[in-house]
């Protein structure tokens, strides 16, 4: 069985648990072992299980090489507790697994976890004011609006560039947006973008949207300092000064500004332990219990780093401002310590980066209910956070611009023409489906030419306009819609029948016209007297 990337979606931790069990059962070598003068078929040593599972997790793209041997042992303890494995005497249910030579085996079938059924929380419907309702005031109530009847005359006036008459219109003022309206717009568009990035049909199975506080989103976007760190309105929720000093000391080592240089060996380890103890005693992780599923879902996008960064950017906007600020300061300190070559080693046996992940992953992400893979998932997320913290913990500029543009659009004064049922600037959504070329041609002919043909006939039959105006309109129509005009007047003769020429009366014959026409003078013979 080949490992596969488990993408975002509901119950991702459960799906990963089931996949790891199947991979472990398929990949663990089983041999004959002897213990206390007795042979046991198809079993394995505890150390062999640790070696195999550690290699399996390290090569699995859902977890990666950051997984330590100690974390692998903890996972095997959970395997023993959940009867994924049992000792050679069939005992299980206790987490007494150790990395030693004890023998274990697989039961006939390892139990896979079923997907829990979450109670339906219902979709939250965000109420917005009626944007088309005019603002209260006498000036809006008494604006005269001329009713428009769409006859041939009005059609010509609206479409003729020569005449250029503008139909009657009025200004429509949007109802003024309150701060609550703006916050709800931020919440709605932020969650919509998060759902799109995750590629989910709905967020209902990974996030209870009722628990998302719209005020938190707005504060995390606008209440920031020059470094992009959140500024809190309630100063009582700030980190204690002594913890901030300790974090700055290690982050900026050896140039500590708030703490004097130590004189004893191991000072930096004592400072680090103080920071670990403070964050370890928190009752809830920084990413909160409510958002555990959404952050685990984001881990399914790590094959597409740009998508994962955007999803984490948006998800971190949902946090309470005090949590977001602590996360920003903590992850920045962790990243700087990991890259600081001047800082003495904080552990003799563990690399500094691995130590950072092990020490702080649980205070950043964990589940309220015990989930067997939460430590591995948290370690994966924290590693990605450390590598991309500057982008992830900044405000997503594209999302901010789109929401601000939308709010400005809703506040803008609109022009509404008389006879229009809806606002021209905000067309109602339309839905379409694909049709054949023949059906399209038929709809085009019947849907557009028939009303134009009726309009042409109305112009032809209108006896209230002069012949000169009628010819002018027909000429304009012929120029704009030649096909429709050709259907009505296929030949010049049919067009001439519309304007028959009047018969001219012949003038009366005059008497002088009957006389001989003037003849030229003929020279004759002259007589001389």
Automatic annotation (TrEMBL):
Q: Which UniProt keywords apply?
A: GTPase activation
InterPro entries, per database record: DEP_dom (IPR000591), Rho_GTPase_activation_prot (IPR008936), RhoGAP_dom (IPR000198), WH-like_DNA-bd_sf (IPR036388), WH_DNA-bd_sf (IPR036390)
**Recorded GO terms, molecular function?**
GTPase activator activity
SUPFAM superfamilies in UniProt: GTPase activation domain, GAP (SSF48350), Winged helix' DNA-binding domain (SSF46785)
Q: Which residues does the UniProt record annotate as the domain Rho-GAP? A: 198-393
Q: Has the keyword ATP-binding been applied to this entry? A: no
Task: Name one process (GO BP) from the record.
Answer: intracellular signal transduction
Q: Which SMART domains match?
A: DEP (SM00049)
What name does the UniProt record give this protein? DEP domain-containing protein 1B
Name its species.
Urocynchramus pylzowi
Cite the source lineage.
Eukaryota, Metazoa, Chordata, Craniata, Vertebrata
Q: Which gene encodes it?
A: Depdc1b
